[in-house]
C-alpha cells in the first residue's frame, strides 16, 4: 500500500511506548503468552490471544504499525484467567509485543512475529 | 455519530456459583483509524470505539483501552467468574461521545 512509508518523525516507537508503560523497569519472561498466526493473509483482521496469569494489566503493541499502540487491557477481580482474544490490524510483516504488569509490580514481555500478505492500514 | 452501531454479547444463561464462564462480545463499528485517505487524498478523521468495559454486579471483569489498530467490528473474548446471580454490564465508549450499553442476566443454580 502506498503511504505506509510516511511515518512521521515524531511518532513514538514501540520501544519508547514500552519504556513508558514499564517506567523503565526491567522486563522479564514468565507465564505471559501471546498467540498470533505465523502468517496472516489479511492484515485488516489478525486474531490474537493474550494470556497473562497473575497480571493486573497487559499492553499490546505492533512495532511496525504507523502508531504502535494496539490496546491496553486491565483485568478486574472477577477475571479468573486473565486471557483475552481480539482481532487487530497490522500494516505489514512485524512483531506483536505484549507487556504485562504483574501483581507484584514486576513486568513480563512476550512477542510473536506475524508475516502479513496484505497490509491493514489502507493507503 | 457513527451509524449502525450494534453491540452483540454472548453470555450463558446460567452457571454454578463460582464458575468461570466465557463471554464473547462484538460491536459493529467501522473503527476508522485516522490513517486512511479518501479519493481526493484527504485524511479521513479517526472515529473509533476507544474503551470497552465489562462489570458484574458492579465489580470489574475487564477494562480495555482500544487504539486504531483494533479491527473493524471490535471483538473480545474473555472469561469471568460468576460468584452469584446477577447482571453483566457491557459498555463501549465511542470517540464521538456516544456510549453503548448492553446488559445480560445470569442465573445461578
UniProtKB/TrEMBL annotation, chain B:
Superkingdom field: Bacteria
Domain Sulphur oxidation protein SoxZ as annotated: residue spans: 10-103
Alphabetized InterPro entries for the sequence: Ig-like_fold, Ig_E-set, SoxZ, SoxZ_dom
Gene3D superfamilies attached to this UniProt entry: Immunoglobulins
NCBIfam families membership: SoxZ_true (TIGR04490)
Protein name from the UniProt record: Thiosulfate oxidation carrier complex protein SoxZ
Lineage: Bacteria, Pseudomonadati, Pseudomonadota, Alphaproteobacteria, Rhodobacterales
Amino acid at each position: 500500500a502506498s503511504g505506509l512509508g510516511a511515518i512521521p518523525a515524531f511518532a513514538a516507537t514501540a520501544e519508547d511506548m514500552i519504556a513508558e508503560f514499564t517506567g523503565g523497569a526491567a522486563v522479564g519472561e514468565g507465564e505471559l503468552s501471546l498467540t498470533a498466526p505465523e502468517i496472516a493473509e489479511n492484515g485488516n483482521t489478525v486474531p490474537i490471544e493474550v494470556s497473562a496469569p497473575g497480571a493486573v494489566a497487559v499492553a499490546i503493541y505492533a512495532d511496525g504499525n504507523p502508531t504502535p499502540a494496539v490496546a491496553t487491557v486491565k483485568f478486574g477481580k472477577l477475571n479468573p484467567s486473565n486471557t483475552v482474544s481480539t482481532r487487530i490490524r497490522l500494516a505489514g510483516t512485524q512483531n506483536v509485543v505484549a507487556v504485562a504488569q504483574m501483581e507484584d509490580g514486576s513486568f513480563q514481555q512476550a512477542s510473536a512475529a506475524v508475516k502479513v500478505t496484505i497490509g491493514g492500514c489502507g493507503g | 455519530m457513527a451509524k449502525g452501531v450494534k453491540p452483540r454479547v454472548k453470555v450463558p444463561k446460567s452457571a454454578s456459583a463460582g464458575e468461570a464462564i466465557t463471554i464473547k462480545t462484538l460491536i459493529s463499528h467501522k473503527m476508522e483509524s485516522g490513517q486512511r485517505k479518501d479519493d481526493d487524498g484527504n485524511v479521513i478523521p479517526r472515529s473509533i470505539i476507544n474503551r470497552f468495559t465489562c462489570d458484574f454486579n458492579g465489580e470489574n471483569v475487564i477494562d480495555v483501552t482500544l487504539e486504531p489498530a483494533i479491527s473493524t467490528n471490535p471483538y473480545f473474548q474473555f472469561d469471568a467468574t460468576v460468584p452469584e446471580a446477577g447482571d453483566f454490564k457491557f459498555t463501549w465508549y465511542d470517540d464521538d461521545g456516544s456510549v453503548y450499553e448492553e446488559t445480560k442476566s445470569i442465573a445461578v443454580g
